[in-house]
Amino acid sequence: MIHLPTLRQLRHFACLADTLNFGRAAKLANVTQSTLSASLQELEATLGAALVDRTRRRVVLTPLGERILVRARHLLADAEELVLEAKGAGEPLSGELRLGVIPSVSPFWMPKALPALRKTYPKLKLYLVEDLTERLVEKLASGAIDAAILALPCECGPNDGAVLGTDPFRLIVRKDDPLARRASVTPAEIRRQKLLLLADGHCMKKHALAACGLRESRDPDPFAATSIFTLVQMVDNGLGVTLLPQMAIDAGLLKGTGLAAVRVEDDPARDLGLVWRKGTARRGEFELLAKALAKATSGATSGIHAKALARV
């Protein structure tokens, strides 16, 4: 019979991989350093191979350790889902849920959604993780988060999900700009402006350009912003114009500024979706969460329908 590693050993290994320090890993795992060290030695003995290289100054995962870590995170996530599914069988959305949210959604949409969500599911313990799309997809795959709110389409891997609704883009200009007096503008008119966008890595940049049929400049933009709030300040200071999602405008982002939002013809928009791991036992819970999110923010969405999310 094959001697199998325990979930406890795998968890201790994952904590060490997260911190690359035995002391901090032991604190994270809520055990003594000697206990964690012994647990790792038992895991390596069971597998018959070294997972980490130990020196006086640092801990480094071996190539095998890197591969084992991926499998370990999947096993830990599956085990956690098993427990949560059993606990939530009688009452869905009643335990812990780690939800990833992209920065262009989190500060504008979640304040609307959370109060209604708490009212509908008072026993849900929701932990928000704000990060860029690429890192949230990685965290979803590793089990570090359970689901994520992303702007679609995106490289979200072989996951499932539900589209929550659409979020139109608006052109943001100074109130003294002639375009501010227009009922709408065309993408061709936007091309003639100094368009300020978020830095590379932010999915909103790609979605805004694609939605409006605009091409990304080949030259690096020295004025690229790292947040929507910075974009607003840059436009307010006369450096150019930008494209912002309607949800940010509805949340009052332009209040106290000298800026106006102008409709873009054909209402180009991004889709917002809740994404979760394909095959998860908690699919039913995530579908309920998607419906609750769409209902809680119905003023900013155009409805909800479930669909498989393919690689795009």
Task: Give a nutshell description of this structure.
The chain is an alpha/beta fold.
Task: Describe the 3D structure.
This protein has 312 residues and is of the alpha/beta class. The chain has helices at 7-19, 22-29, 33-47, 63-87, 106-120, 133-142, 187-191, 203-211, 228-236, 246-250, 283-296; strands spanning 52-54, 59-61, 96-101, 125-130, 147-152, 159-174, 184-185, 195-196, 241-245, 259-264, 269-277, 305-308. It has 3 domains: 7-85, Winged helix-like DNA-binding domain superfamily/Winged helix DNA-binding domain (Arc Repressor Mutant, subunit A, Orthogonal Bundle); 92-165 and 270-308, 3-Layer(aba) Sandwich (D-Maltodextrin-Binding Protein, domain 2), CATH 3.40.190; 166-269, Periplasmic binding protein-like II (D-Maltodextrin-Binding Protein, domain 2). The strands form 2 sheets. Strands 3, 4, 5, 6, 7, 8, 9, 10, 11 and 12 form a 10-stranded mixed β-sheet that branches.
What is the count of helical runs? 11
Overall mean pLDDT: 86
* Unreliable residue stretches: 299-308
- Tell me the major beta sheet: 10 strands, mixed
Examine the coordinates and then state which fold CATH places here, giving the name of the CATH topology of the largest domain: D-Maltodextrin-Binding Protein, domain 2
Beta-strand content: 15-25%
The dominant shape is elongated
Number of domains: 3
- Derived from helix and strand composition plus strand pairing, the structural class reads alpha/beta
The count of DSSP E runs of length 2 or more, i.e. the number of strands, is 12
CATH architecture of the largest domain: 3-Layer(aba) Sandwich
The CATH homologous superfamily of the largest domain is termed Periplasmic binding protein-like II
Order of helices and strands: HHHEEHEHEHEEEHEHHEHEEHE
| Span of the ends, CA to CA | 44 Å
Radius of gyration: 23 Å
Helix content: 40-55%
